[in-house]
Design brief:
Number of domains: 2
Oligomer: single chain
Structural class: mainly alpha
Number of strands: 3
CATH topology of the largest domain: hpI Integrase, Chain A
CATH class of the largest domain: Mainly Alpha
CATH architecture of the largest domain: Orthogonal Bundle
Radius of gyration: 21 Å
Strand content: under 5%
Length: 293
Amino acid sequence: MTDLQDYEKYLLEEKHSSANTVSSYMRDITQFSTYLKEEHSCALRQATKETVQEYMNWMVGRGKSAASVTRFLASVKSFYVHLVSTGVLKANPTKGIAAAHVERKYPEILTSKEVELFLEQPQCVDAKGFRDHAMLELLYATGIRVSELISLDLSDLNLAAGFIRCESKGRERMIPMYHTAIKALQDYVKNIRPQIVASNTEQALFLNMNGERMSRQGFWKIIKYYQEKAGIEKDITPHTLRHSFAVHLLENGADLRSIQEMLGHADISSTQIYTHVIKNQLKDVYNKAHPRA
């Protein structure tokens, strides 16, 4: 029995909740579960306080009412209290979160100049610099999730055709890359990776300096290091480059369906948040620039 099925049974048989309550709670939590899979490649058990708050902000960004966000918070708090009480989880990720703290907050986006500055930070003078340059270029070139980046194997690259193959949640997609990213990967794969790989049987594309597959935590530290080095004040996460990839494509004429395909969103509503980001940016420009605004 899944956590959701167990929770539904608890609502019906122990709490004797009404059919409407059970339906709305299950819908809220199922939608949150989908968001976690789409945006963070993780399950409900791996949710954190930050991802719960991020989802609430995402709901507001999509125009959801305060009542909807408050109901979601009630649903998800009840769910995680149940998981803790049954011993499935030790800590409740919703503890301390209040609906009043929700703001209309859109994903952090880097400007084209900020992306350029950020991607220039790794210096291709040693193995680490070449590897980091290739990883950051690939992330911005394709918009893949960090979990997908570190899961890539050598066999997922088709540098001659300029594509990578990305498989996530049972779906496979082919994503094109621009020339600079292809060149960075060629340099890394041909000249650097053979120097640092620990074993001939290691298939991982990106390796740590011990020659083993790069971890999520290791890549997070790399992002933070280059953010500080670039002197960019915005909070850059691996997801920031994914968001920036989508918005910059949209700004330059790409259609939502194509962006949805490249990002690997099952539902186009997940991709539509980027149209709200652009509208919000235009509104800011208008208010700052129009003489009568």
